[in-house]
Amino acid sequence: MSRPPLISRRLLLMGFWLAGTAIARAQVKRGTDQGIGGTGITRGDDHGIGGTGIVGVIQRFGSIYVNGERVTYASDVPVRIDGEAASPKALRIGQLARVVAVRQADGTLVTRNIAIASEVAGPVETVKGNEMTVLGQKIVVSDKGSRLRPGSQVAVYGLRRTDGVIVASLVEPRRATTERVTGLVERGPDGLRIGGLKLNGVDPLLAGQRVQIEGSASQGAMQVARTRIDDFSDLVGASRLSVEAYVQRAGANLQLGSGFVARDGSRFGPAAGEARMVVGGAFDRSRGFQVDTAQAIGQGPGAPPSGGGNPNRSPGGSILHPNRSTPNPGGGQPGAPGAPAPGSPPSGAMPGSAPTGPGGPSAPGGMGSPGGPMGPGGGMGGGFGGPGGGMGGGRR
Prior knowledge:
Blueprint: H1 9-30, E1 32-35, E2 39-42, E3 51-61, E4 64-66, E5 69-72, E6 79-81, E7 84-86, E8 96-103, E9 109-111, E10 114-116, E11 120-128, E12 131-134, E13 137-140, E14 153-160, E15 166-173, E16 180-184, E17 186-188, E18 191-194, E19 197-200, E20 210-218, E21 221-229, E22 238-250, E23 253-256, E24 260-264, E25 274-283, E26 289-296, E27 317-318, E28 321-325, E29 366-367
């Protein structure tokens, strides 16, 4: 006569189920981090197909708001500021962020890397009122910028107008910094230059392209040590782009202050003059950028006069195809259309998007913490083209 089993099959299955549930709960608890503002993120929970590459000024926290979108992240998210590893605590309102964000099933946007890129970093050369120059770049700042003195080492975050002037959203003092500038390389009577900075040792084929340059500057010229094209190729996995920029119409296309020309299908770009906008779109079959949305977000400090832009400035190249130059017939026209007051949300913003007004202790145009979050360092991505970099690409 056989003995009855000590544990029935039903009880055994129930035990397995309870054990599996406990393990799953423990894994979820370990994999959930809190972002700034108490944002919970569960890693490995990407439901979206393709991400959105977002390039714009950080407007406020909770987690971060860029281009009117709330982008959440884990408390230990990798952050790079001008190529150097940094803590998320080093993020500041006014910094220019570059992220690839994936839409989750609940509608939230999540990023797993944050890159912060200054437009120019080096010594202050001149200060006059609300204007200053750094490495030959003309910069418009808020009144707080007048505290700076020539010789101060700074990193300047902001957007370029279509005449090449940088409208600073944050000027951050640094005790020491690698001299670098990013902008449209143009041909001048004495050779290649970005803004008022002459470039020595640059490949002539880079003319007409937006390039990040590092080197040593003296007497208005930089001896270039490293160059790398800035063409959004770092936004790996992005099927769409959302870019904050000063925008001017160039024929049927849009000229961005950063130096790019994008194909325009939105019909909402400025009909005349220049406007500060968030332009969105997708990559076409040839990996060009096709704009299908454009939202005015207000001019901010340092807005150009009516009809802004510079008809004599090179139009630059198209996004991801910088060598394909697009002519600008006639340049800017007077009478830029009105834009919402600064701080108002973009018209037609996505549901759930946040107001775009600045806030917090480091408002755009203000001063960052003394010394800045980063000391001296190499190029974007831990050296140009290094792993985990904020800008991607490789050495040229």
